[in-house]
Amino acid sequence: MKTTNEINCDILKITMQIEELFPELSKYIGEMPVKISYCKGSEIADNNLQDYFDSLDELLINYVTYNKSITS
């Protein structure tokens, strides 16, 4: 399992990729539901961060796949 820092790094990377390559998707990032749970003091649960990353990844994959099928 990835550490909190690794997941946060993944989130940052995919967010930057979306903003650089597909800026039209940036508006959806702010609208994505994020479930925040706290555990171990005030740390956000790693599984919630992973879920957020997975939803960003799915957004990007679906967008690229959909647009590729339209342009083909």
Question: Explain this structure to me?
Answer:
- With 72 residues, this protein is mostly helical.
- It has one domain (4-71).
- The protein has three helices and two strands; from the N terminus they run ααββα.
- Strands 1-2 form a two-stranded antiparallel ribbon.
- The longest helix is centred in the C-terminal third of the chain and has 26 residues, at 46-71.
Helix content: 55-70%
Question: How many separate domains make up the residues?
Answer: 1
The run of helices and strands is HHEEH
Termini gap: 38 Å
Shape: elongated
- Major sheet characteristics: 2 strands, antiparallel
What is the alpha-carbon Rg in Å? 14 Å
Proportion of β residues?
Answer: 5-15%
Mean pLDDT: 84
- Strands, count: 2
Low-confidence regions: none
Helix count, DSSP H or I runs of 4 or more residues: 3
Broad structural category: mainly alpha
Please give the order of strands in the largest beta sheet. Answer: 1-2
Q: What is the secondary structure topology, with strand pairs?
A:
Blueprint: H1 4-21, H2 26-29, E1 38-39, E2 43-44, H3 46-71
Antiparallel strand pairs: 1-2
Question: What can be said about this structure in brief?
Answer:
This protein has 72 residues and is mainly alpha-helical.
Defining traits:
single chain; mainly alpha; 3 helices; 2 strands
